[in-house]
Design brief:
single chain, alpha/beta, 32 helices, 10-stranded mixed β-sheet
Length: 807
């Protein structure tokens, strides 16, 4: 059936009547949302089925992206856009006196991720489909996911995120595709002549049930799958679960993302989660591969599994288990195929994120997997003896000091290891993974992260999108690199003013939201200064907070310049429940906000807003309104960053250290269109190598620093004495791990330059234009094409260019 406004309105009214026996005027927003989502899903289903069938018929190699996090955000608007329906549906609903944006607000964010890692995974899912590439996601269907954040008396409180309470209209439960995952117990091997058979005793059997969500490609008819696993009790095991507590143990396996790992019980649960989704996914993949009627010795030609950070690292051992134990392949044959199948992205140089698991915990969670890892480790050591020095072998082996090192397993067991920005990859090669780079130089490569411009510009910022359409045409919607056409309008006052007006409308929208959510009234004439990312010491929200305190004290003491530009500081961040230092910073930010926002002497000169429960849908409100993008991590600590890309695409100017992808942003926009400050990577490493950083000297010798830090402990900032003391001690007594005091003066100076630049509105708008123009260079579509060509060796289906999906 052809898709047009009149046909859709009739379909919508009929579907609403079928589902709820209601007229449009009598339906609630929830009923309207579910009606619309059901029409969307039924319309893309035929393309979903056709895509899978074509992959099978063409014998396409498929990639499976394994990630413990996915953060897709709301799917309604994304699906409407990618199907080519968005504007037609908006107009049709308007004819029925329905606001599409109000309906979209009904949808809850899928609580499947925390931050950049999960958002990147979801961006890659979108891009795989939009590039027409055969790619699938594999993860966990968390019932609560990451916690819902609330502030009570300035403290972060974690509440259950009940995102599934009203159901999820986008998922399909596929009972017939269930598999059994084995946890715990004991295992021993029996010699069967041609192979060793593992015999399990007292293992816990878990039924893994897949829930599939369609990932709709952008106007190309490709619909891929994100498969998320739920845990249930197998019917054969019901008798073993006689109490609610016993049954809850199974439910807990998929209840929350990142269980509290401050206790061993939490660490055990987290490792169980990692094995659960890895085993379920690989079992499902192997079962699917058998439909090709190909030998297991060719699985690497048809299947690729991507290990997104170290959480899915047991994929290496699990595939070996299936090939050796169940398919009875030789060890060498199985290993050859495993290395061919696996590829790995490293997302951090932070030691805490390079997972290490005590051998006794691995033994408790999955003893057979531990046996296989031990054998991989033994053979690795044996192979490298005589080729490399003993100490290098010891540094790179998988098991050392009774710990299983998951990054080492991922690198040794895969054919590719990539970093996610040029600097990050250089650090991996030169420092963090240097020994592995010496051993396997051909395996290392860089793939700088990207973002889905469709969500972050077309959906999140329709005001700016309309300006771009008029200025440079609509070609950029298909190919975001075409945004560079905007550069010819750098001196076009009409276009510059239109960009500024679009920003103002977005600021007005956010200001209304802030007042509704917090009661704080903010001026849209002020600079909207935004820092939105996970709360971690290395990301240095504390540096931003110190700057706010400095400005507050300056205003109170009459020290601000006459051309001082009012600011609204906007934070969005969650701290891990057991990360108490990060939670102390949140408390201090909130108390500074209370102090600043309620001081009549300050008025509209400064406002501080910390929005609760940072998530994708909240980011879609903040990012289009931002004037300043704070990317102020200590150089060498942020692997890439993606909020930096989203914010520049929406015309925010970046205040940045030379860290992660900030360097590549600077290379594109030029030094005149970004605000760079702080230590470089080499300067940071010089401090490390020489051990000559003494933060207390900065406190003693720098009056400004002393004045700001004293405010945390002398009662100037109320209601955070303990937290203020903890921050004070971390920066003075414990030598300021992330060089906040060392970079403070440089940061203050660059912020003064921001003030002066914002005072020249035309120049500011020109800089904003340049950032928008180069924002398209960080498209995840292009990033995925490089993964496909350089790592995965997959190719797209013939692009059928469907344009608008039929109804």
């Amino acid at each position: 059936m052809d898709f047009n406004k009149e046909v859709f309105k009739e379909k919508f009214k009929n579907r609403l009547d079928e589902k709820y026996a209601l007229d449009v005027k009598d339906a609630t927003p929830q009923e309207l949302y579910l009606t619309l989502s059901s029409i969307v899903r039924s319309s893309y289903s035929r393309y979903w089925r056709k895509t899978w069938k074509k992959y099978m018929e063409d014998g396409k190699k498929q990639i499976y992206y394994f990630s413990i996090e996915f953060l897709p955000g709301r799917l309604l608007m994304s699906n409407l856009l990618n199907m080519g329906w968005l504007e037609t549906v908006r107009d049709a609903l308007k004819d029925l006196d329905i606001d599409l944006d109000e309906i979209a607000e009904v949808e809850k964010d899928m609580a499947l991720g925390n931050g950049g890692l999960g958002r990147l995974a979801s961006a890659f899912m979108d891009s795989l489909a939009s590039d027409g590439l055969p790619g699938n996601g594999n993860g966990i269907r968390y019932r609560y996911g990451l916690f819902k954040q609330k502030f009570i008396d300035g403290y972060q409180i974690e509440l259950p995120n009940e995102w599934l309470d009203s159901g999820n209209p986008w998922e399909i439960r596929r009972e017939s595709k269930s598999v059994t995952v084995r946890l715990g117990g004991k295992v021993y091997l029996v010699d069967r002549g041609n192979y060793l058979e593992p015999v399990y005793e007292d293992a816990q059997l878990i039924k893994a049930v897949p829930y599939d969500t369609a990932i709709v490609g952008y106007k190309n008819g490709t619909v891929n799958t994100m498969r998320l696993w739920d845990a249930e009790i197998p019917s054969s095991e019901e008798a073993k679960y006689r109490t609610i507590e016993q049954r809850r143990e199974v439910e807990d396996l998929v209840s929350v993302l990142y269980p509290d790992d401050s206790k061993e019980s939490g660490r055990i649960l987290r490792l169980k989660q990692e094995y659960f989704f890895v085993s379920a996914g690989i079992q499902s993949i192997v079962r699917h591969f058998k439909k090709y009627n190909k030998s297991m010795s060719k699985i690497g030609e048809y299947i690729g599994i991507h290990i997104n950070d170290t959480h899915p690292a047991m994929s290496v051992a699990e595939l070996m288990r299936i090939l050796v134990d169940e398919e009875h392949m030789s060890w060498d044959g199985a290993w050859k195929q495993t290395v061919a199948v696996m590829s790995y992205t490293n997302h951090t140089i932070m030691a805490e994120a390079l997972e290490k698991w005590p051998v006794h915990i691995m033994q408790q969670v999955q003893p057979r997997i531990l046996q296989i890892i031990q054998e991989i480790d033994r053979r690795f050591v044996e192979e490298k003896q005589g080729q490399y020095a003993r100490d290098m072998i010891e540094r790179t082996r998988i098991i050392k000091d009774n710990q299983v090192r998951m990054a080492n397993l991922s690198i040794i067991g895969s054919h590719s290891t990539n970093g996610v920005a040029k600097l990050h990859t250089e650090l991996l090669k030169d420092d963090v993974l240097r020994d592995f780079y010496v051993m396997y130089p051909e395996r290392f490569n860089n793939k700088t992260n990207g973002i889905t411009d469709r969500r972050w510009l077309q959906i999140a910022n329709p005001e700016l999108s309309k300006v771009l359409d008029k200025a440079i045409g609509t070609e950029w919607r298909q190919d975001p690199t075409k945004l560079q056409k905007l550069l010819k309008h750098q001196n076009d006052n009409k276009v510059l003013n239109q960009i500024a007006n679009a920003k103002l409308k977005n600021k007005e929208r956010l200001a209304k939201f802030i007042e509704k959510e917090t009661g704080i009234k903010v001026s849209t004439d002020a600079i909207f200064d935004v820092q939105i990312k996970r709360l971690h010491a290395y990301k240095r929200q504390l540096l931003k907070l110190m700057h706010i305190v400095k400005l507050y004290l300056d205003i109170k003491q009459g020290k601000v310049a006459s051309d001082f530009q009012p600011r609204v500081f906007i934070f969005g961040a969650k701290a891990a429940p057991s990360y108490y230092y990060a939670k102390a910073i949140i408390k201090c930010i909130n108390e500074v906000a209370n102090m600043v926002n309620n001081d009549p002497e300050i008025g509209d000169k400064l406002k501080v807003v910390f929005l609760e429960d940072y998530r994708v849908s909240l980011a879609e409100k903040i990012i289009p309104a931002a004037n300043i993008s704070e990317q102020i991590s200590l150089a060498s600590k942020e692997a890439s960053g993606t909020s930096n890309m989203k914010l520049m695409l929406n015309g925010a100017l970046t205040v940045a250290t030379l860290d992660g992808a900030n360097i590549e942003i600077k290379d594109y926009v030029g030094e005149d269109n970004i605000f760079i400050f702080g230590l470089t990577k080499d300067e940071v490493y010089d401090y490390y190598n020489n051990g000559n950083y003494h933060s207390y000297d900065y406190y003693n010798s720098h009056e400004e620093i002393r004045r700001v830090l004293n405010a945390f402990v002398d009662g100037t900032i109320p209601n955070c004495q303990a937290e203020g003391q903890e921050i004070f001690d971390s920066l003075t007594k414990y030598n300021d791990e992330y060089f906040v005091l060392r970079d403070f003066e440089s940061y203050v100076n660059i912020q003064e330059m921001v003030d002066r630049t914002y005072g020249n509105k035309r120049h500011w708008n020109q800089m904003s234009l340049v950032n928008i123009a180069y924002g398209g260079m960080f498209s995840s579509d292009d990033t995925i094409k490089r993964y496909a060509e350089d790592i995965w060796n997959i190719s797209p289906l013939k692009d059928e260019k469907h344009g608008t999906y039929s109804l």
